[in-house]
Structure formats: structure tokens, C-alpha cells
Amino acid sequence: MKKLLIALCLITGVARADNVLHVFNWNNAISDDTVKAFEAQCKCKVEATYYGSAEEMLAKLSAGAKGFDVIGPANYAITPLVKLNLLQPLDHGKLSNLKNISPTFANTKIDPGNQYSVPYDFTVTLVGYNAQKMKELGVDPTSWSAVFDPKILAKMKGKVTVLDDPREVIGAALRYNGFSANSTNPAELKKAVGTIKAAKPYWAAFNSQSYIKELTVGNIWLALGYSNDMYQARSDAQKAGRPFQIDYALQKEGNGMTADSFVMARNAPRPDLAHQFINFMLDGKNAAQTTNQIGSGTPNSAALPFVRADLKTVPAIAPNAQQAAKLEQLTDLDAKTRRAWNQAWTEIKISK
Amino acid sequence: MHSKQSKWLWAASLLVYAFLYLPLVIVVVYSFNDSRLNAEWVGFTTKWYGVLFADDQMLTAARNSLLIGLVSSIFATFFGTLAGLAMYKYKLRLLPILVLTPIAIPEILMALSLLMFFVALNFTMGYLSIGLAHIAFSIGFVAIVVRSRLQGMDESLVEAARDLGAGPLQAFWRVTFPLILPGIIAGALMAFTLSIDDFVITYFVAGAGASTLPLQIYSMLKIAVTPEVNAISSLLMLLTLALIVIAAKIAPGALRASH
């Protein structure tokens, strides 16, 4: 029996090489060069495991999956992770670069005092658009009215898509009406749903998957989507030599945004390497590499000098204080509100 | 009248085949497209195959998928064939329920229960846990195929062999086994296919650092799937075709549905 167990252990790799850091994250969220640089510094190996959505990651961890050191969840997933007792507090004494987090992102309601989490990038939910078409039609994409006002939408019927996600679309409609994207007020929700229902006949589709492509090819002219996807669409259109340019802008009514953070698993096998890694990612140069690769915003003040010049001027990547004040982090909604939103979403989907 | 009917049948079957195979053709064609997007044809290039062969993560995931598929389908075929034989021979109440439940229950339930089971055993998850899970969900499929093959078999053949002096084992190897071999091979191919493309169960029982091709491709969706995925898919299709050709060579009758 003992021999069998030893054999099993060998197959399953219990007798692992000692110096391995296990990271559980989105795919492509960190640049390979950054990982290589860290491996050289810590003389260890980074093993990455990927997930495709926050729900997937939560489901797997809450069912008891072990062996991960660092997890890179979206911020709205931090609250449930803490509630489920899946994280351990960070030792700030081991994070000398903690001071690099910009004030907008440090010490938020989601994680007071950054007890558990350190933000490393952020994505804004905004409007991406075909610049030439907007000029032609005289549409101003810096207001949510381009997505929600039927009078303006009439010029672009069937050429607009929005994300297939209640959290994002209802959140944007709330901002358009002057409310918080995290509103728990049923009357405000009702008003937002009315706005969406009035706009829906003009939209081509609810699309979270292929809107980058549709924008790039020119099939759609305006999309409610994520800033790093719009960055992708823009560079794809440039590379393909399109006769038009894809741009994206913040909306004057304010935007919802989601930061991603590094947290440490409660049963992390290597807390020492985890701290080393998180501190390494807080270094300005390394944080900038993430932005330069995928066009996500950086919550790191020390990163700005290292961000590519063409990205530094993009408000969704490096907002000034005024713009940052209008960005609102999406939080985890309470169960009652979430049910109300999901019901509203179903209602929206089946409405004509 | 007759010819008219057969024309319609031809047209209908052509449509069905087009619906099944055109998407696959498109995947292969776009693996040679000189653009990061699968949006429109820009020009011919083989660079995505170059990108693929330089991408260790993707290649490792593909290798893992093939190995897990191969090993788990061998085990599942062995146990599934035994289960199929038992279900056919003995009128057991419980066995069919036990064998067939994994086919009927939703995948997500099976995934979570397997994960909790491994956690309860304090079993370190990795490739072994993936392999065991794949064997568990494939056995039922193999058993069903083998049992239905047995039900279509003429029992008097085995009786005749016994009357002519064959022992029970001899009768099995000389008569029953050759007759059900096509079913066994079909079951094995099914188990292999199921293993290769399973996502939900694999995702939950994969340990830290373990990856398979579906896991790898799925995690790329958030940023954008590049033609590199088309390239690996094309190669896999080629491999699958080769397997079918080999299977047809080994057991010519195996791929035909029945006698």
C-alpha cells in the first residue's frame, strides 16, 4: 500500500520541484516578459493556470481546489472570496512597493486598507466607435446618449451593439440617468430598464464575444464594451489598413470600471514567493509592461513614466484626476439586488 | 416518382453534410489567413503554424490532451466492455443504474462532485485526477455501445460453439469477441473523443498548473482567439482522420454501423 501511495505521489507530482509559484489568473493578463523577469529574480518557476470568468474561478475555489498561491480576480470577486474565507491577509511589511498604488485605487470600499488585495490593472466599460462614421453622422460618442437616446440611435439603427451582461449595460444606463452604477434603489433600476427598452429596437445585438471583430471590419459603428478590447480593435483596424479609425472615449456622465487585483490564497503553499511576486508586479516598470501589452489601464502611479507614449494620452488608460473622479468601481451586488437585476435583464431580453 | 424521391434525399443529405463539414473547412482555411482576426481573407501565410510551434503552452496542452485521451480511453474501454457484457448477461437491477448515471447527470454536477470527492480524500490534483475523471465519465458510453452490439448478436452462435466443445472462454474469444469488436472500437473512439473535448469536468478537477487543450483555448476567449487556435485545430483534425483511417484498416467492419 505504501509503495502504491509513493507511486501515486510521483505521478501526481506531489514531489514537485520546490521553487514553483502557482498563479491562477485570466489568460494574457500579464506579459510573458514580466513573468520571465520575475523567474530570473526569484530563481523559481511560475506555473500559470487560467480561468475564463470570475464565476468559474469562484466555483472552483469554493469547491475546495487547492495548490494556488496568487489569484488575480476582478475586484467584484474579492468580496465573495473574503466571505468564503478563501484568502489570507497580505503582510504589508513584505510589500515595499505598496506606495505605488494611485490614490484612486488604494484603500477602496471593496478592500479597506488593502488588507487582502493589490490592484494591478483596470478596464473601463465605455463606448468604442468608428471615428469617420461618427463625424459623418454628427454623433457625439463622449455621452451615453449615443447608446441610449433613440433620437441619436435612429441615425445608426442596426449598427450598435452592447455587451451581453446585465451588470455592465444596466450599470451604464444608470450612469446615463445620473445614478450610481452600483445602485440598489428599485426606482432607479426601473428607470434604467425603461431607458434600455426604448433603445433596444435600434441595437443590432447583445454581443460580448465578437464585437472587436465587427468594429474592426466595419459591420458595426458603435459598441458598448471594454477599453482593452477597444484598444485591440483599434490596433487591428490599423494593421489591416482600414479606411477608418476605431477610437474610444470616456462618457461625461461617468463610467463603470473593473480593476483586477492580486490576492493570496488562504492555503497558499508558498506565501513567501507570493509576496515576492506581488511586490514585483507593483514595481512601476513591471506594471507598465502589462499596460503596454494589453492596453489595460494602470492603477500604478510609478508606472506612468514607462507607459508607451501613445497610450499615456488615452483617458481610459491613464485618466487625469478629473476623469478618474468619474470612474466608479463595480461592486458585488447584494443577493436581493442581483435577483432584481437578473429579472430586469430577462424582461429586457424578451421585450420587443 | 422514385427518382424524384431520391433526388430530394440526395439534396437533403448534401445539405446536412455541408452543415457539418463547412465550418471545419473554414477553420482549416483561416489557419492560413494572414490576419490576427478570423474576419476576412487577407492573404496566404503559414506563419500561424510557426507561432504554434513556438508556443510551449499550447503544445504542452495539446500533448496533455492526447495523452490523457489515449490512456483514459484504454481504461474506459476495458471497464466499459466488461460492464456491457455484465449488463447483457446477468439481469442486474443496480449495475445499469450505476453505469449509466454519469451519462444522465448534468456535467457540472459531476464536475463539482468529483472535485469535492478528490478534496475529501486530500488527493493532490493534477493529471491523474483528470485521467480518473475522464475514465469515470467514459465507461458508461462504452458500456452502452457494447451492450447494444451484444443485443444485436445471434445468441445461437455462442450456443453452437459450446455444443461443438468450446469452453466458455474459448467461445468468448472465438465467437463473441470478434462479433462485438466493432462495438468496442466504436466505444473506444467515443471515449477518446469525449476525453479530448471535455471542458467542464476537466476544468474543475485540474490541479494547479495542469492544462489541456480545451482549457487553454477557452481561457484565450477573453482577449481574442487568434488563428493559432485554427492551426492546432487543423492538426488535430488531421490526426483524427488518420486515426479513423487506421481503425478502418485494423477492423474493416468496425466503422460500419451493423451487419
From TrEMBL, chain A:
Taxonomic superkingdom: Bacteria
UniProt main location, coarse: periplasm
Keyword Mitochondrion: no
Coiled-coil regions, chain positions: none
Gene3D superfamilies found in the cross-reference section: Periplasmic binding protein-like II
Record keywords, A-Z: Periplasm, Signal, Transport
Keyword match Transport: yes
Pfam families noted in UniProt: SBP_bac_8
The family this protein is said to belong to: Belongs to the bacterial solute-binding protein PotD/PotF family.
Function text: Required for the activity of the bacterial periplasmic transport system of putrescine.
Name assigned to this protein: Putrescine-binding periplasmic protein
Taxonomic path: Bacteria, Pseudomonadati, Pseudomonadota, Betaproteobacteria, Neisseriales
UniProtKB/TrEMBL annotation, chain B:
Residues of the ABC transmembrane type-1 domain: 62-247
Membrane topology, from the record: Multi-pass membrane protein
InterPro entries, A to Z: Bact_Polyamine_Transport, MetI-like, MetI-like_sf
Superkingdom assignment: Bacteria
One Pfam family this sequence matches: BPD_transp_1
Transmembrane segments: 9-32, 66-88, 95-121, 127-150, 171-194, 200-219, 231-251
PROSITE patterns: ABC_TM1
Protein name: Polyamine transporter PotC
Organism annotation: Silvimonas iriomotensis
Gene this protein is translated from: potC
